[in-house]
Amino acid sequence: MIFRKTLLLVAALCLVATAFAQDNRGTADVTIKGKKISIDYGRPHLGSHGMSELPSGGVWRLGMNEATRIETAGDLSAGGQSVKAGKYTLWVKKTGESWTLAFNPKTQAANGKPLWGAPPQVGGFVAEFPLKLEKAKDSADQVTISLAEAKGKGWIKIQWGADILSGSFDVK
Q1: CA 159 to CA 62: how far, in whole Å?
Q2: Residues 141-161: pLDDT tens digits?
Q3: Do the domain assignments include residue 13?
Q4: pLDDT digits (tens, 9 = 90+) for 95-119
């Protein structure tokens, strides 16, 4: 009888942990000009600070746990820089009052496992796309990344709390 109760308790805890873990992962997908772009990211809850409080010169890991990953079937370009089709990790950089979305080709750790977001990558970026910071009307408790298409261009929006980083890019 004790064994059954213990087994049921362990099963219930596993279900709760699985539900919590799924709640903390997010995806964003869009197809532009027949090319699919997908982002997989962790969704931390809002803590005591938001993106706007990232110090100048800092690199943010854009999510939690495993590093945020993007896979694109088409070449992307923005702000005079381009990214070839493929897989990358995404990072946000702040320089002065300017924000950029930085693409890093490192997607796995030395042991072949997924790259984690901490410590952040501080170099090796292949491109950085400009982002604009603005304030939202409503606050988002968890990081939310969305991708959209408008007039043949791609758009990315990253919201955490009342901070929104957004930018457009071309797809080839």
Answers
A1: 10
A2: 899 999 999 999 999 999 988
A3: no
A4: 998 999 999 999 998 898 888 888 8
pTM for this structure? 0.84
Residue 100 resides in a domain: yes
CA distances from 143 to 5, 46, 47, 165 (A): 37, 8, 11, 11
In degrees and rounded to multiples of 5, residue 52 shows phi and psi of -65, -15
Domain span at residue 47 reads 26-171
Which burial class, exposed, middle or buried, applies to 105 when counting CB atoms under 10 A from its CB (0-12, 13-18, 19+)?
A: middle
Residue 55 lies in a domain: yes
Asked whether residue 4 is assigned to any structural domain, the reply reads no
Number of domains in the chain: 1
